[in-house]
């Protein structure tokens, strides 16, 4: 499937901003099942400098500075991306405790690399309450993939999707208590539950096809990657209770939302601000 993805972010300030420094993670990743045909980012006002780099997790980052006074600021990222069906090999029937022990013992180079996703991160820390939430799905000897799929399904059915009910700084345990939020919260809950029982999980940022019968379409979306020895990372979308396929476009991944924030930066001046975000992902003819 060939898509055109457009992500526009617009800021309006009460007072002029004298200068700002920003960085964006808006360029989709090149993956075995995802080919980036082209990608551009338009910035207004015109930046004084622009630099591209790859961050620690392999995500594309564009950093720029605007040194002229302005009361409006926008970034518009447009990408043409082909998304193919992902390989569907039968998942390894490895028990979840075996995976936990392999991660803790660093028994292979891939397990050692994945272990950093067992550790706490700024927005997702392990907690006994999160471990307790995970345990009903993780019976002794149960295959990891089956247990993770059930956990994802439980989050989908037990949590209410409520836009504006949480903010980026809402404590994770508050979300667990109220059982409501958006895709970012659902993903953080699942990651926290898995880390709390010693498993490796990462936060995946991307988009959904516009018009799809999925929660989180026409906005930045998030789902979860889980490390499975012998299979690498397997993605699950707890918000929609699906395994990501050709309707999901991957932009980046990290430990939590903070590692893949689409647009962030600092500004001098400005006072209060209004932020508007618009995302469209539309199929196009090949």
Note down, in words, how this protein is organized.
Helix 5 links the parallel strand 6 and strand 7. The N and C termini lie close together (8 Å). Helix content is 21%, strand content 39%. The model has no long low-confidence stretch (mean pLDDT 95). It is α+β, with helices and mostly antiparallel strands. Strands 1, 2, 3, 4, 5, 12 and 13 form a seven-stranded antiparallel β-sheet that branches.
Spell out the key features of this protein.
286 residues, alpha+beta, 7-stranded antiparallel β-sheet, 4-stranded antiparallel β-sheet, 21% helix
Order of helices and strands: EEEEEHHHHEHEHEEEEEE
Total DSSP helices: 6
- Helix percent reads 10-25%
Mean pLDDT: 95
Overall spatial form:
globular
Broad structural category: alpha+beta
Major sheet attributes: 7 strands, antiparallel
Low-confidence stretches: none
Radius of gyration over C-alpha positions, nearest whole angstrom: 19 Å
- List how many beta strands DSSP finds: 13
Straight-line distance between termini: 8 Å
Strand content: 35-45%
């Amino acid at each position: 499937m060939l898509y055109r993805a457009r992500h526009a972010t617009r800021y309006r300030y009460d007072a002029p901003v004298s200068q700002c420094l920003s960085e964006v993670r808006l360029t989709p990743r090149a993956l075995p099942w995802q080919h980036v045909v082209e990608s551009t980012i338009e910035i207004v006002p015109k930046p004084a400098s622009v630099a591209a780099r790859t961050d620690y997790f392999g995500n594309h980052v564009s950093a720029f500075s605007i040194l002229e006074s302005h009361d409006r600021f926008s970034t518009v990222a447009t990408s043409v991306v082909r998304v193919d069906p992902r390989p569907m090999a039968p998942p390894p029937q490895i028990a979840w405790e075996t995976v936990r022990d392999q991660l803790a013992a660093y028994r292979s180079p891939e397990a050692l690399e994945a272990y950093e996703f067992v550790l706490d991160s700024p927005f997702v820390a392990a907690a006994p309450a999160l471990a307790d939430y995970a345990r009903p799905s993780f019976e002794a000897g149960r295959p990891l993939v089956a247990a993770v799929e059930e956990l994802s399904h439980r989050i989908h059915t037990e949590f209410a999707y409520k836009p504006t009910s949480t903010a980026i700084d809402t404590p994770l345990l508050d979300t667990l208590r109220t059982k409501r939020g958006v895709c970012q919260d659902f993903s953080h809950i699942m990651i926290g539950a898995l880390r709390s029982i010693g498993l490796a999980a990462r936060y995946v940022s991307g988009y959904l096809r516009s018009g799809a019968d999925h929660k989180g379409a026409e906005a930045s979306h998030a789902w979860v990657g889980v490390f499975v020895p012998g299979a690498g990372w397997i993605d699950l979308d707890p918000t929609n209770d699906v395994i990501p396929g050709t309707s999901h476009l991957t932009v980046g991944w990290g430990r939590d939302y903070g590692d893949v924030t689409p647009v962030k930066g600092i500004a001098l001046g400005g006072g209060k601000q209004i932020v508007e975000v618009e995302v469209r992902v539309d199929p196009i003819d090949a």
